Amino acid sequence: MVADTWIQRSSERTRLVGDWLQRHQRAIRGLQWCVVAMYLVLVAVPALLPLPDRSAHLWSNITLAAQFVFWGIWWPFVLLSMIVVGRSWCGFFCPEGTLTEFASRHGWGFRLPRWITWGGWPFIAFAGTTVYGQMVSVYQYPKPVVLVLGGSTVAAIVIGLLYGRNKRVWCRFLCPVNGVFALLAKLSPLHFRVDEAAWNVSQRDGLHPTRVIDCAPLVPIRTMRGAGACHMCGKCSGFRDAVSLSARSPNHEIVNVAGQHANPWETVLILFGLLGLALGAFQWSASPWFVEIKQALAELLVDHGFVWPLEATAPWWMLTNYPAQNDVLTLLDGFVLVSYMLATAATMGLGLGAILAAATRAAGAWSWPRFHHFAQALVPLAGCGVFLGLSALSVTLLRSEGLALSWVGAARLALLSGATLWSVFLAWRIAGLSASGLRRVASTCCVTLAALFACSGWVLLFWGW
Ligand code: SF4
Description:
single chain; about 475 residues; two-stranded antiparallel sheet; 19 helices; about 65% helix; binds iron/sulfur cluster
């Protein structure tokens, strides 16, 4: 009751913020172009400079500064912002969004081909960039940044030139982090709420006949029920007196909306992508298993007279190759690296899938929608894991500058515990939609087991090895 009153009061204030955004689109565009300029400098300039030596510091070397800004601040806090203010990053700041929309305004405006709208792209694009990024050490070196981020930006511009008019086709269907952002934004306490009854009345009475909303990420506004696809740009605020920026419970969308739109690809992204592949990507360089597997394979190869995979290398744009930095991956390293990430994805994905299947069955007769709904309960944990993985780089960079950061371990534990409890609470609410009594308890226990299994990889990384 208290929460409802608070949400109602907050919604009055947020509605005004939404209307303010709607009236200040020019200022938002100005801000977007400032971010584009900053982004281009941070991507391009370090690639033109020599790599920093051991005496370089964050505050005196632009390459280290760009590395820290991109991977240490930008990415972890963009992820965090999704949970706090939805996809505002996409609507206000994302340089690729700005560039693809601009290109689309001046491009050919072809109709969308069917392949673009395939639901598997968010997972495939995320998995592809994660694996490739690790192969070329994108977090460590500036040239791979040009290749990965710059390549993605060029692709966004090309798609903008080809398809749609004033649209963000790239963001809606192909952006490698679109799926991740859409999942995390479901936890946001802010969203643009659509009052369908007010919309119908407005349409019936012929109100606002001239106002047209050009939603760049192609959201069907009238039927919008969640924050996953909306870029929070504010253009539609106040439309037909039915759309307004509103506060809501952070649990609302996962519990009440996500189950009605069961999406197998979202489940794959959560279980195999965020809780599997991403874990492997952050884990492999610290993993004793990685070293053991590599040594065993090396011995096997030598025993059979195949020494070349232990010596052969590849160009830097295929596999990390920086002899001056004493950082070179052989073909064997590359093979084990990719295999490690894929094996982690398969182990976590299949293991979590099996436990969620048990949760689904415990709640009643088998139901795919319920299975996918339970997977959504793990979104807080999935987001937390990727945030911890990315922020580990910030911690490493700051520690190399002499900062002790002794509180980091406790903060990680608190975040992981909080995210686990949140996931368990969501599972309890989801289970309550179709089960009660012992069945509800049993299915929640299964999801708790899945959450603990998902945590185990991060516990090993931060405290086990
Ligand atoms: S639905 Fe579209 S127009 Fe409305 S705020 Fe979201 S992105 Fe902007």
